[in-house]
Amino acid sequence: MNITIVTVGKLKEKYLKMGIEEYEKRLRPYAKIQLAEVPDEKAPEQLSDAEMEMVKKKEGERILSKIPADAHVIALAIEGKQRSSEELAANLESLMTYGKSKVVFVIGGSLGLHADVLKRADEKLSFSKMTFPHQLMKLVLMEQVYRAFRIMKNEPYHK
């Protein structure tokens, strides 16, 4: 399985980089992992609704340029479906079984995802109703994808 994680913004925090590198290494035996970062749109702290929409649109265009036409897209969104780790594992296993070898997870920027990206998504996944920094979500997502593969292979994992 080929898994791509598309995120907005450059990862700066060393502790997050180290965690992501660790899960990238752990995932290698299970899947080909590609991490794609698209630049975030520079914007002032206070934005009008129209300016927010423009920022999300520009970031969305960059995200969409990283998604192959034949990929199954899972967008991380607060309004998405919440799944247990076992359900995520079953979902990924089902995608593999039915020939979806390219899965792209998408994590938006600080303003979220543009409607065009959500429209392109085959499904929306929510980790919580809470808001998390998008860079931290990259680490959490990688851990859950790793856990999903461990579950699929009936290998022990920390509960």
Key terms for this structure?
single chain; alpha/beta; Alpha/beta knot; 5 strands; tRNA_m1G_MTases_N; transferase; S-adenosyl-L-methionine; methyltransferase
Q: What can you see in these coordinates?
A:
The protein is α/β, with parallel strands linked by helices. It has a single domain (2-151), classed as SPOUT methyltransferase, trefoil knot domain (Alpha/beta knot, 3-Layer(aba) Sandwich). 43% of the residues lie in helices and 22% in strands. The chain is built from five helices and five strands, in the order E-H-E-H-E-H-E-H-E-H. It has helices spanning 14-27, 49-64, 85-97, 115-120, 134-152, and strands spanning 2-8, 32-38, 72-82, 102-107, 123-126. The chain has a five-stranded parallel sheet. Strand 1, helix 1 (14-27) and strand 2 (32-38) form a beta-alpha-beta unit. Helix 1 (14-27) packs parallel to helix 5 and helix 3 (85-97) crosses helix 5 (134-152). The longest helix is centred in the last third of the chain and has 19 residues, at 134-152. It is found in: Cytoplasm. One of its GO terms (cellular component) is cytoplasm. S-adenosyl-L-methionine binds at residues 76, 108, 127-132.
